[in-house]
Structures are given as C-alpha cells and as structure tokens.
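Checklist before submission:
- one chain only
- standard amino acids only
- sequence pasted in full

Submission:
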Amino acid sequence: MPSIKKILVANRGEIALRIMRSAREAGKQTVAVYSEADRNALHVRYADEAIYIGESPSSASYLQIDKIIAACHATGADAIHPGYGFLSENAIFAQRATQEGILFIGPSAEAIATMGNKLAAKKAVSQYDVPLVPGTTSSVTDLATAQQAADEIGYPVLIKASAGGGGKGMRIVYEAAELKEQMERAISEARSAFGDGAVFIEKFIVAPKHIEIQVLGDQQGNIVHLFERECSIQRRYQKVIEEAPSAVLTPEIREAMGKAAVKVAQACGYLGAGTVEFVVGQDLQFYFLEMNTRLQVEHPVTELITGIDLVRQQISIAEGNPLAFEQQDIQMKGHAIEVRVYAEDPLNNFLPDTGTLHTYKRPQGPGIRVDDGFEEGMKIPVFYDPMIAKLVAYADTRPEAIARMLRAIEEYEISGVATTLSFCRFVLQHQAFISGEFDTGFVEQHFSPEKLQQPISASEEEIAVALAAILYDRKHPAQYEYAAEASGKWRNRRL
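Returned file contents:
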C-alpha cells in the first residue's frame, strides 16, 4: 500500500489540532475543513490547507459526507482522519471514502456497523468467551416482553438504546411499577436522538465502575491492548475525569480485561485504534459494555503511561504497516490523569455556557499537557460540544499526579465563561476519589453546587499536612487523608 501524502482531518477544534501535529511529525501534509463559526479557528490556521464546507450548524458542515469527500478531491487529500464525534463512527462515511479511493484512517465500515449497534456487538463477542451483562439478546418494543425480561433478569434493570450512546435513551428501573414510564421515555429519547427507537434490557450493576481498555489492531491480524483507563467520574453518563491506570485493578484482573478486550477486537476483525468499554461491579467482576470504533477523548492518558503515540499508530496501520511491537513489549509506567475542561456551569446542573474567553492562560510546568483549540479572545460557539480543552497531568505515582493536576487547575486562568475546573478540583480533593473507592454515581452521591460555594480556610500547616498526605505511600490509597478546603489558598500563600 502506498504511503499517505496528505490527510484531511474531518473534524474541528482540539482533536483536529492534535491529529495534525502527529501527522506533521510523520511527514504528512494536512487539510482542515471548517464551518462559518470556525473561520478563524486554530486548526484552520495550523493546517497546510483549509477548505470551507458550510454554515455553522454541524448538520450543514461537519456532518456533510458529500462536502467532506468533495474537499478531499479538491485538495488532493488521499486519506481522511475522522477524529472523534461527528462522522467518526459512521459506517456509511467510511464506506463512501473507500469507494471514492480515499483511505479511511480507522476500522472497516463493517466493524463500525457491527460495534455501533449494541445488540449486534453483544452477539458478535458472545462467541469469544467475553463476560456479558445478563440481558435481552434482541430489541424490546412492547411492555409485556419488557416486564417478562426484567422479571427474569431481576431488578434493578437498565433500559438502553440499541443504536447509540452518550446516555441518551438510557433509563434505570428499580422496581416493576416504574417500568412502563421509563420504557416509554427511553424509546422516545432513542427515536429522537438516533432515529431508532429500539431498546434492550440488561441487569443494572449496582455501584458500577466504568473501565475501558485501549486496543490497536493492524492489517496483518495482530491485536494488542495498551492497558486500562478509569472513566467513572461522569455527569449525565458522560465522562469528565479519566485516569490510567485504575487505582483498584489487580494485575490479574488487568490481564484478564486486556485479553477480553483483544477478543472483542478479534470478533469484528478490528484494525486501527479502538476502545473496549467494560462495566465493573463492586466485586471487580467485569462485563463487556460496548466498543468505540475511534480515537477516544481520553487517549492522552494512555499515551503518557505507555509512551505510544496513538495517532501515529493509526496512520501507520492505515498505510499497511504491521505493529512495531508485541504485547509483551508494551510497558506501563507512571500515572496520568485527564480532566475535561468544559464551558459548563457546575453551579447550574452543568448546563453549557457560551461567551468570549476574555482571559485564557494555560498551565505549564513538568508533566502537564494541554490539548485545546482556543486562545484568548475567541468565542465559544453554541453549535458544538462545549469542551474547551483536555488538561492532562503525568507523574511517577497517582498521589503525585493528583497533586500536579491540582496545581495545574490553580494555574489555569479562564474568564468569560463558566467552566468545570472548580468541579474537577472538588473531585480530586474528595476522599472517595483519593482512595479509589468511587463509582459512576459520584456526582449524585457526593456533589452539590453548594459545596463549590463553601468558604475556604486553611492554615499553612493544614496545607503542608494535606500535601504530605496525598504523597503518602501509594500502596495504601485508603489511608490518604486530604484537607479538601486547602487548595483554594495555594496560589495566595507562600509555604
């Protein structure tokens, strides 16, 4: 297969920039596409070429397959990288690119289609001895069938849209009396979000953790995993903080999850970078949840603990090169934490905020990485996901990574829009997070807006004790004690 010369990045913002940087290091030219709202965006200025594809709404621009294919032909781009979101998991887009003679940097259209439907994905992996959550094997559309299935599975159960994710079309049912109402809501929401009202029912795992495994597969059939990412800190079923490795997995469970993830990838003949997601119970029993057939927002934490550039690997695999390493060659070193800096107001139910970045100063220093697509004076557009940046901290140990991230959050100066930085600081200081004893219900269990408005008071001695505690023996995370009120004074005090 010939070497790629020019890559069109069918995305915007921070992920477009991140892809272009690795492409440039690999000696590839890049093409940006942009909407009306993104005329002056950083990814447009960074690319070797840029081409306008439509009005600001994504439905008129970044979701327009014909316009993106036409942009490839107009610029001579011989490959497309879809990033994440938008068309990244659209099988029709992948197939169309291939038909047009354009290399799609990602899995096959068939793999995308199989893993894009949760029921089809469960069916595919069922032949590979991968643990599955007990549930229906086909879609459910009537109440009588749903009641029978729920009774057999046992409450609580989870109703999930078959055709999508992101928390849409998802309802937890704790008792039979709630089933009818929640079924109707889930079906209506699934139909509205995905144009498909099909839902299925599975056992709801109480106090679950959301842990995923990064995989890479080449065209020669080699598949490896790059360990796990802990993604349990969520709001509205969407991730806010991720870390690698998990604070609770034993080496034995980590190995078992890695092998299961490789089997899932084998089930669909996967190639490229993908993520296998698992739900993990209190007993650390894990079950296959779904597979995301694209690069993940949280991929930087895996890159930092393994030293492997996932975008470079995607490009190399698309060119037909075999993986340059085997499973035993991949080593995990240190600890990485990522917080997603959203233009959202944690004091107002995390509702998106818009406005102009009057102040925008990134944190710097050892072990800090910021992937963003904004600069001071730019506006946060209303048309797209409100994420401003991915802030990542890396250190030798988890306690040191937490301390480093708290320092970075204090240094991150943003004004003009509300952000999730204060919420992320709250989480990182919370005993449940420090100990590792948290699950996907963290927000409901521990957070309320009032907790961000409580007065901060700490002496120098209290701050010193807090810092010493967080850096204490990482082998005993349950012993960490941390003064949550301390961090707010760090910037203004001299120790």
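Reviewer check: Residues 209-492 form a domain with the D-amino Acid Aminotransferase; Chain A, domain 1 fold (CATH 3.30.470.20).
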